[in-house]
Design brief:
single chain, about 150 residues, alpha+beta
Length: about 150
């Protein structure tokens, strides 16, 4: 007789935990292999070769949407900024194409741009924003959103 209540209790616990768990996020091959920190490190030539960029990362996701936010504190002169941003953009496009994704749209401003991509049923975009500080102080932000 005790076995039946334990079985019912076990089934109830499993049902509750199953209902509370979220579905696994389906990510593109690009997102699964993309590292904004690596892109920054490959594209950035610090004035002092000993100095490494300070990069911070925040990733959020649900069963439908993934967001990642990477920011780097760098030293980039105003005259080097356009070439630096172009290197970042090229690197991101190469990563999308290397992972069998396809660039389906682009947009840009003075010191920012967006790249829209698709990989099968998954679509997303990468926003890159550069912000000047005092002197050569520079903050680069890369935001990836995928659904």
């Amino acid at each position: 007789m005790i076995e039946r209540p334990l079985l019912l209790f076990g089934i109830t616990v499993i049902a509750i935990f199953s209902a509370c768990s979220t579905a696994t996020l389906s990510r593109s091959r690009f997102l699964a292999s993309f590292s904004p920190a690596d892109v920054i490190k490959r594209s950035y030539a610090p004035p002092d070769s000993q100095q490494q960029p300070s990069i911070s990362t925040l990733a959020l996701g649900s069963h439908e949407v993934h967001h990642s936010y990477d920011s780097a504190d760098l030293s980039v002169s105003k005259s080097d900024e356009p070439q630096f941003l172009l290197r970042i953009k090229r690197e991101i496009v190469q990563q999308i194409e290397k992972s069998a994704g396809k660039v389906v749209g682009e947009g840009s401003g003075e010191n920012d741009y967006s790249i829209e991509y698709a990989d099968g049923k998954v679509s997303g975009w990468v926003d890159v924003v550069g912000m000047r500080g005092a002197g050569d102080s520079y903050k680069l932000v890369i935001i990836v959103t995928e659904k």
